[in-house]
Amino acid sequence: MMEILVAILVLGLGLLGFAGLHARSLANTHSAYLRSQATILTHDAVERMRVNRAAAKKGSYNTVIGSVPAGGSVAGDDLAEWKQNLGQALPGGDGSITVDGNSAVTITLRWNERRDGTPTTFTTQTTF
Q1: pLDDT tens digit sequence for 55-80
Q2: CA–CA distances in Å: residue 54 to residues 28, 48, 58, 59, 68
Q3: Alpha-carbon span 61 to 75, nearest angstrom
Q4: What is the mean pLDDT of the chain?
Q5: What does the alpha-carbon distance between residue 1 and residue 3 come to, in Å, rounded to a whole number?
Q6: How far apart, in Å, do the first and last CA atoms of the chain sit?
Q7: For the chain, what are the domain ranges?
Q8: Going by C-beta distance under 8 Å and a sequence separation of 6 or more, which residues neighbour residue 61?
């Protein structure tokens, strides 16, 4: 009888460990998915600037987190659509773009990955 109780205890602890491992795996998979979405959206912004290079060099694509870009121009429409895509693909997603005079681009994305509301920040730099 004692052996059965010990076996049930060991099995129960093993199943609890497996459940914890599975939950952590799901959280990491979701985090990787969000980072993949962030990478895709970053490349989307860079490609939009490459197509409209003259406006990007003038700073028309510069935007900050929390701003709502006005449409009406190609750059304004691009930014408005990009920010809308950020909000749809990433929970609480927003972003900023800074283009300096040497065509160096810094893109920062921020979203709420955790349930406690702590923002995750993803920054990339490139040139076009």
Answers
A1: 999 999 999 999 888 888 999 999 99
A2: 40, 11, 6, 9, 22
A3: 6
A4: 91
A5: 5
A6: 73
A7: 1-127
A8: 45, 48, 49, 52, 55, 75, 78, 79, 97, 99
